[in-house]
Amino acid sequence: MSEQLHDLRLTVNGVAHALRVPARRLLSDALRHDLGLTGTHVGCEHGVCGACTVLLDGLPTRSCLMFAVSAVDVDITTVEGLTEADGTLGAVQQAFLECHGLQCGFCTPGFLTTVTAGLRQHPTPTEDDARDMVAGNLCRCTGYTNIVRSVLRAAELAGGEA
Amino acid sequence: MKPAPFAFVRPQGLQHALEALAADEGAKVLAGGQSLVPLLNMRLAAPTTLVDINGLPALDEVLVSDEGVEVPALARQADVLASTAVRRVQPLLGLALAHVAHATIRNRGTVVGSLVHADAAAELPMVLALLGGHLRVASTAGTREIPADELFAGPLESTVRHDEIAVSAFFPALGADEGVAFAELARRHGDYAMCGAGALVRVEGDRVTRAWVAYLSVCDVPTVVDVELDDVGAEALAAAAERALGRLDPVGDVHASADYRAHLARVLTVRVLREAYDDARARAVGGRADPLGGRADPLGGRADPLGGRADPLGGRAESRP
Lengths: 162, 321
Fold this sequence. Notes:
The structure holds two protein chains of two kinds. Chain A is an alpha+beta fold. Chain A is built from five helices and five strands, in the order ββαβββαααα. Chain B contains eleven helices and 15 strands. Chain B is an alpha+beta fold. Chain B is globular.
C-alpha cells in the first residue's frame, strides 16, 4: 500500500509553493528535496547540531524537528532568503565572509539564520551575547572565535553600533 | 534518521482532535515536537497517527493570577520565559526555563509538552513537582486534573492516557513567605543536566519553617524531598543534604556515575537551599521583584530575555484577572 500524500502550500522566502508530500516529510527535507532549496543543511536530524535552522515567522527553529505538513501557516525564511533584494549579501553573510566565520561551510546556513534573528533581539551584542546567540549551533572547523567576531561585525554592518 | 510512516491529522477544534486520538490506540499528540520528533527520527517511537494540535484555537493564552500561572498546551517555552508577569507570580518557572535547551528549541517547544514527555532529566517536570502543580487533561469522556505527584510514572512515562490531550498546566504562585532557587550542572551550555535541583523555602522572620528540594537527572522521576531544614548554617545545610541523599537513588550513566551524581546532588542541595532562603528573606523586605532581572547573569550572558520581544505576551497571550 502506498503512503498517503498531502497537498500543502508552504511560504518560503516570500514565495508560495505547492507540494505533495507524505506526512513524515521533515520540513528540512521538503525544503531541500521538494523545493530544491539546498541552502538549508541537514546534519544530525535530531535537533542538536543546528545546521538546519530556518526562521519561522522570524524565529529560529529546527527544520529537522518539524514536519512540512505542520508548517502551513507560517512564513519560512531559509538562508536563500537572507540576501538583499539585489542579490548582494545580507549584513550577517557579509560579516561571516569578512571575518572568516566559516571554513567548510556545512554549519553556516544555520548560523546565518540564527544570528539574523539574534541580532533583531540584541542589535548591539556584547561578546558574551554573541556566544550565547550561537550556543545552540555546532561548528567543527572554526573553534567559534571567528564566528563570534562575525556576529559582532554583523551588528556593526547592520547599523546596531551606529 | 527518517520517521516511520504515520497518518496525520491537523484538527481545527478540540473535539475533533480528541476523537482522532480516541480512534487510534497508536495515536500520539504533536505539539512543539522538540522531544517527540527526535524520537520519531531515530525510530525510538513509531506512532500510527499523529494528531497535530498546533491548529487548535485558544490554547496559547497564558493566564497569570494571584493563585498562579496556567500555561495552555500551545504556549511556547520562549514566550513563558519572556513573560515578566509569569516571573513575578512564580519566579521558579523563569529560572528553570532559562536552562531548557537553547533559545531555538524554546521557540517551538511547549511547557505542557515537556511535562507530558516526563523526562526525569528535564527541568519543567521537576518544577511542577516541587510547586505541587497539576496538569489538566481532556478526553472524549471529559476533563480531569492530574496532580504533579501522580503524573510522573517512570522514565519518559506519564499517567496521561493515550486518548487524552494535556490542555494546560498549573503552577501555583510563590507565597509571600517563600523563596525559590534553581541550579543545574551540564557538560555544555544547553545540554541535559547531569544533576539539577530546585528549592522552595518558607520562612517566618529569619527562621525557616519548611523547605523542600526537588531533583532532576538524579532518579528515574523528578523527586521532591522535604529536607526538614530549620537553620541555614553550614552544618544544618550539610545535614539537610544528607537527609535528601537518603531519599534519592542516583542512577549512573555514560554522562555521570551514580557516585558523582550523589556528590553533585549534595553540593547543589546546599547551594539552592541557601539561595532560596536568601530569596525568601529578600522578598520579605521587598528587595526581590524579578530574580531574572536582579541577578548578575541568570540567563547565561543574556542581558534580558525580553530584549527584542519586548512583551511577547502583552495584549495577546496574557491576561491577569
